[in-house]
Amino acid sequence: MSGGSWRSPASVRAVLIGTAAYQSLTAIPHSVGNVDVLCRILTNRELGGLAPHQVTSVLDPAASADIMQPLEAAAAEAEDALLVYYSGHGMLDDLSDDFLLSVTTSQKDKAWTSLRFPHLAEAVKQSRAATRIVILDCCFSARAFADLMADDSQVLKAQLTEKTGMYCLASSAETKTSKAPKGHDYSAFTGYLVHVLRNGIRGAGPALTMAEIGDEVCRLMRYTEYPIPVPCNRYSAGGFVLVPNRSYEAPAETVRDDVRVPPSQYVSAAFKDALRRILTAQKATVVFDDGSRTGKIGKLKTKGGIPDTEELVGYVKSRRILDGKPCLVAFTECGLYVQGSMNLLRVPYTTLDGLSHLTVYGKGAGGGTDLGSATPIEPLVTTTLTLAGRSTDFEDSARLIAKTLDAFLPAMADLRSRHPAGLGAGMR
User: Fold this and answer.
1) Closest Cα partner for 330 from 353, 349, 355, 357?
2) Phi, psi of 321 (to 5 degrees)
3) 269-281 vs 400-418: helix crossing angle, rounded to 10
4) Of 203, 277, 295, 319, which alpha carbon lies 20 to 30 A from 130's?
5) pLDDT in tens, 342-383
């Protein structure tokens, strides 16, 4: 392969399993997209670099044998690495406590209609592949760790003397359900996994290991409403290189002051993580920006005048009481973008010291209480921001924006003191 990720591409096998249509359980149409996109990534010459015959896709298996037969064949052929991916319903057997993978004919409370995960785990462990990778996108998927990491077979014990490795990435903890948002092409976990594989990790090396990929997916999902994935690594299998890093930038010896560097190349992941924690504490909406101008995030960036080169981290929205017009404060990796009643105000984090922030408390239209009803008029809160002679203001009865800024500005001042280099330099 041109990307150079697999150490010995010809001896790698991947089995991608997706159950989307069910006779008795709720359909998960995302499973089809999950398997399709991962197949395309693994067979992309610039990413996975595998030949089509090395990747087996199993869509809508009707019985356990539909999964186990192709898996055992791939496990027997793999020498360098075996990768197994599953997307569908994960269930638990109340009697045996076994973890179950569903097929199209699976029925709730009838464990015999599903694939018992210990069977799949044993097939993976019996493979002679030096590295075994299992990625599960289903409810309760961390339950798989006990079966995958147990030393219960003589074959496995013999293999462990040669330090063969096992890496597992589960979409959810043992007691958590995984999510497949309506209207999305992929499930939540696989969507983030695909983003990392396709776009890479800023600040990482030229190639991405399974551990780096798993850790980045966990980091990104930590600031969402979705479950946080759980990785498990044995005998350094997490060090196996999966794909080239498309975000890798070779260190430059010098950077000219007159050259505008795209912000995402110099704003550290540590700073953005700290920024997300600040916004989460203030109950702002924290988002994951994949760089697209489509969808909700794309619309927010367009409305806020945020350039493609900046990553949107979070936002707070409100509406003016008097005329219902929307007000938006967007937080990027470089600064604030405030869309108020008068104009758009850009505030790089490096200029926060010069920002004038004034909040005035008053009454809504007419003042006091509406005499025609017993409902009081909502109090009117007007916040004005001024920077270098330019101002904008916004009004909201719940003080959502005002309270967020009141707490954000001192927290950001402290954060800037710990991450002083380069912040906000990309804003124009």
Assistant:
1) 349
2) -70, -40
3) 150
4) 203
5) 567 787 877 777 776 666 655 444 333 333 334 444 455 666
